[in-house]
Amino acid sequence: MEREKRNESDMSFSRKRSFTFGAYGGVDRFTCGDETRPETAEENLLDSPAGDRKPFLPASSNQRDTELFEIIEKLQGSRIDEQRCEFPLPLKSQLLTIGADLPLILPPKLGGYWVDPPLQRLVDVSPTSSHYGFVPECYDIMERDREAKIYHKFFHSRYHHSFTAVDPALGHLVLSVCLEEEESKLRVILRMKECSLHGAFSVSLFPNIPSAVELAKMLCDRVTVSKFEVVSYLKAPELITTFDEHRVSPNFKFGVLYQKDRQFNEEDILSNNEESEEFKELLSILGETIQLQGFTRFRGGLDVCHGQTGSEAVFTSFHGREIMFHVATKLPFTDGDPQQLQRKRHIGNDIVALVYQEGQSPFLSDVIKSHFLHCFLVVRRIKRAEDTREIAYQVSVTAREDVPPFGPVLPDPPIFTDRALLREFLLTKLINAEISCYKAQQFSRLELRTRSLLLESLHAELCTRSQCMMGDPSIASLPSSEGPRVVSEGSGGFIENFKRAIRVRSHSFETLGVPRRIGGSASQRPKTEKDGEGDRSPGPLPADSLGPSEIRDQASPQEDT
Fold first, then answer.
1. Chain centroid offset of residue 414 CA
2. C-alpha separations of 178 from 156, 169, 209, 244, 320 in Å
3. CA 333 to CA 342: how far, in whole Å?
4. pTM higher than 0.70, yes or no?
5. C-alpha distances in angstroms, 537 versus 289, 457, 543?
6. pLDDT tens for residues 487-521?
């Protein structure tokens, strides 16, 4: 009887051995430390049959228990702590000293970012140095697509022909041919899903004008089609121009972060509400503080009707371009939300952000977790010398390692004393940074997908309209409108172009009578977008038109933050 009671007692203890993964302190006192019950183990060993006896190894058991509790403690860590990046202690490194000051930027411990100027170059640089290299009065702004306007410049106002085909290997092709009699040139553009090829050939090289297939093969020897279809739609030049210039946008949006001294993590930086006079002065250099209510120019995704994204923002015009700044301190602040998602939903969806530092705390390159942010410009206000009141600004740049370098080049040392020159440099650097970020792997893959969808839509539109012009009875009459626009002017980014391309292709398939799968209830209908509303979020995309990687890449902005 006593033995059965002891067995029942042991079973009750084993049933109570459970662990809580949500908080510390859930340690089973019967299975760890010196509280292990060797006498119970000996009794069990004596009571068990001879064939089932196993040697008792208390040392290995304690070791396993210790390893188990180490795993449990790791699992008990907060998820938000796991998402934070660890800020290294920079004071132990001699490379991080710049005249007793810390650098503006520190690369992450695991790498993945480049910093300009590099830390090695900053060793012998003093903020009070009087040496300056050549600083130009203006800087060159990069063009995202240098050949985007060739069609509009050389073809649109001249008599020309366009052709379409579907190549087994290259996919949809759109060819445009123009004869420039005044210069005896034959100008050709071949549009493929990867890129557009442009060439100009002297007419004297050919005894007869080459065919469309021959011209296409002269530009790309991978073309295998044997026939092109002529485009007879009268307004085809407008559709082709829209496709060619879908990457060209005069609008940009950038984030602006305010980092105070001893702020090393994302939560602290995004929780700043008060703006110092020095920070306001930098904002005045970047642009003008405007009231969002009723604002009619490029708004960069901010609400100009209901005040849901704050009441103020910073806006400027720069060499024919409109720039909206998402200033963290001017976006809505949410009590009880350490991540400040109302702010991060805008700044986390920008590709480039500017960080203003107040104090000597460096900015860690990957401190802001975002799928979109690829580059940061960091600005710190410094004094030129102790005995003068001259104010200067020190600038540094960091970007992900797959972002190619971009201009303008930082002066040596990277210090500016002239406000106008600083504005010219910062705005040019921000624009060039975004254009350069598009060449990163994540964005280049998404751009290729966007271009492929837009080209497919253009091909379908040209074919359908041309057949209607020829009176093909198999094609139903189209609406009087000119069909869905490929992209609206000033869309503000290729991500919106990608979402719009999905909807345009779906609309084109419906025009051709091709069935399309729609997730959800049968009452759902594809939404159309009014012209001039390029900033409005178009909503989720149909998953059936994308592969797994594309669905992940084009996730909605709020999900990506």
1. 27
2. 10, 26, 11, 16, 30
3. 7
4. no
5. 24, 21, 17
6. 443 444 555 665 555 555 555 445 444 444 444 43
